[in-house]
Queue: 3 jobs
Job 1
Amino acid sequence: MFGYSLTRPIHNQDWYYGVFDACSKFRCDIEGWHTESGPGVYEAALEYGEIREMADRAALFKLTVKNISSKFGITPCFMAKPRQGLPGNSGHMHVSLVDKSGKNLFARDSPDPNPPYADVEHLSDLGRHFLAGLLEGLPDVMPIVAPTINSYKRLVENFWAPVTVSWGLEHRAASIRLIAPPTCPPKGTRFEVRVPGADTNGYLVLAAILALGWRGVEKKLELPIAPLARGQDVGGADDKGERLAKNLKEATARFVRKESIAREVFGDEFVEHFAGTREHENRLWDEAVTDWYVLLSSVFHIRKSHANPLFLQGGQEIYRDSVNERLSGRGFSCFASVISWRSLVADTVAIATSIRDSLAPGSYASSSAKSLCRYMMIVSLSTIAPQSRQILLSRHVHALAVYN
């Protein structure tokens, strides 16, 4: 897997510095700009500022990267999870509160001799209430911090993404990472809200963070859960935090319910309107026929004009020639387990082999099965992009010769 690299940016140096310089001219200066986990992945840390200005900078950054990249034949992707099996694209937000003199109000003047948890020894009472507000309200605003169908593909276990209501000092997988002394100077005390992805609206996300945190301050909320120890797995047996919504439909239902904290901080009018947009996206998704269904149908729903169905073990369906009654009652040991297009050819070969082994050599049924299996192979490969098809053929060239 690609990760941090000091040399890879040199391979695209003009593009790399072009983005950096253009962002500076747009007053959305980049503090950090480096490669990250995954091929072609870059992480940008924008220079901090006042909350409304930061929302502008987030929008300007995306626009600038898209425009500059187009000159180099590069198409940037801010999708939350563009690749299966790799970490997604995040949109982490760092937040702190300062007074008019610039003093950080999350920092304690002196360490707390008797803190509820050691992690908050250097966090002020106001900071603790703010954190409690974030933790209590986070499950109710998930459609804002994870607004698309794809957002929830990123929020899964084992990919450094938060999946529960959780927090911890310098915990880089929890929903909220507390950054405070002794790991930083007092003026740097802040929260990193790690749930949002790169597909979010910065204005809405920052509004939600401020609204939830300040609600905690006004109500003087106490921390509802203990912190995760550094290195402790999120979503593991010892993580007592509530599991966040697993999909947009579940998140929207919680967001719009009568007792939702989202209604309390945003008002009914906004919640009803925004929930309507998310429900519309869910409806479109429910109606969509994706490549996943096409792949499955190409293997397990092959139809020929003269064929009758024969149900295989596992409830899947293939077809046999109607003249071969001898096949009825045979239970082919063939389970449906097409996990991805990479296993498509292998599964087709397994089906073909099961049919071959169940028939008497030279019989009419055996001859029909040969044609059927060739047809299955052709249909399966025809649904795959040419480049991917060539890879599969090179790895499974024997598959095409099974019945030759």
Note: The chain has three domains: 1-76, 86-287, 291-401.
Job 2
Amino acid sequence: MSSSPTDSRTVPSVIAEIRCCSALSSRPAINCAVTIFATIYVLLAQRHGLLVSLGGAGIGWFAVAAALRLVAWTPLSAIALNVVVYAVTIPLSRRFRGSTGPVSFVRTRLDIPLRALTVALVVAVVTAASTRIGSFASGMFALFPIILGSSIVIMHPRIGGKVTASMLAHAQLPLIGLGLGFLVVHYLVAPISVWGALVVGITANIAWSGGLLVVRLQILKRSGATSSQAAP
């Protein structure tokens, strides 16, 4: 008797795929909490210091993430939520997206190691606690904006809140690609395995960001050509 592809897999691998699908089905929804985090920081950083700006954004993230736990999200409902949220956050942060030009600041040898250590700590804690806190909470804390937060901690005191806020305002559109990547993984993890789905999901995320970069460069090129033609 021939065995099907599903029969050839081990029980732990099947369980891992089920857990992965369950967690990933919520991550496009949790992605909205990240863009709200960025938007709150952008607004607060215009007039406030690091503690108020980052603290307010963190409180906003936890509040939104807690509210999202009350709903059993499906991929389609998560997509609908993303459409509504990004329709608000992108226009709201647009006026803070102006180019500030190159900014120099003093880097220290500990900047990158501390960021890497912080990310590794979050990953270790979420992985260790995933069996107790459930797939949704695991997905929620896995998307805690630790990279954005550590960047804010490093940059806000050195180059100012407004310049740092400009960086996070520009992050709104790329964050859509993050949700897209999670959605791709959710649908592909069962038919092509976890690792194959991750490769395709990461590729989709990179392709989205690369497309945004190409569009941005084309806009800057046209803007430069228009300025040169207008010059006497």
Note: Residues 1-22 have pLDDT under 50 and may be disordered.
Job 3
Amino acid sequence: MLIVARTSRLFSLMAVLALALALPASAENAAPLVSTGWLKQHLKDPDVLVLDIRSAIDSGGVEAYQQAHIPGAIHSDYDKAGWRVTRGGVPFMLPTLPELEKLIGELGIDEDTHVVVVPAGVHYTDFGAAARTYWTLKVTGVAKVSILDGGVAAWSRDGNATESGPSKPSPKIFTASLNKALLTEANEVQKIEQTGGATLIDAAALEHALTQVLRIALDGTLEPAEATPGLKALLMNAAGVDDFAKLETRLTTVQAATRDSLNRILS
């Protein structure tokens, strides 16, 4: 059994796992990953909606979308549109169902739509955005969701036509239905940490861990909401201690020296 914590930046693992279960693609039986050839064949299917999610994460956004996109694709900026929210001081949380119903419905998506999520295809981080969008749609009850393998970059590389300017969505009424099988709460993860019975995978990006290390080095603090089990283990291993309290104590003794070293590196 595999359970992934609903903490910062762990959501995309759910979609990545789903990709491993890919089935032959059709409009009726949506595979998690589809090729540019498949999309070209099904681009005009009435139930298929191409969702371009380019954003600042891939140095794109609406400007890149309007310059060139897959014909008919609807744009939703992954970083700005509301696919993730900060709640209770914790970033990157799942929005509420009413928020998601509004976001998804206004894009022209309902329960019967086959959504093909299209990232930029330029870096692994933008695939993470696609995987998170995939999971968000799935967890709110959109049954048919796929990710375009290689994104916009693959579509263009394969010589397929693009168009410029915006494509206006036709809003629909979307009624969300939370799929609890794809969601794990923090208290459930804490119980698993204590009693076992499942494998926990910390999917936080390496850049995220390094950001926390720099924050600790510069001001001696670690954001509690960001202190995932994997990050704690990483820091304790680096410090050569077996207890997080010992790590916090040691931080106070190495902070000044680390800051001086960083200043020399960055100067």
Note: DSSP finds ten helices and nine strands in the chain.
